[in-house]
Amino acid sequence: MLQIGPGEIGDNQPLFGPESLGLDSVDALQIVVALDKNYGLKIIDPAMAKDILQNVSTITETIERHRMGEPILRPPTQG
Hints:
The protein has 79 residues and is mainly α. It is built from 3 helices and no strands.
C-alpha cells in the first residue's frame, strides 16, 4: 500500500518501473478493473495497458478520449 496521499502523486510521475511509485502487476490489474467499472473503459491488450497506465496523465487522457467516443486503439500522445 502506498504511503503517500493522492495530492503527492505528480500527473507525469511514472506509476511502474524504475524511479516510479513502485506499483506492481496487482496494482495494474486493480486500476484496469476500476477503469472498466467506473468508466466502461475496457483494456484487454497488455501492451495497451502498459502504455495507458504510464502515469496519471496518460490514464486521464485515455478516459477523456473514451468519453468523447474515440476508439482506444493507440496510447495517448506524450507531449
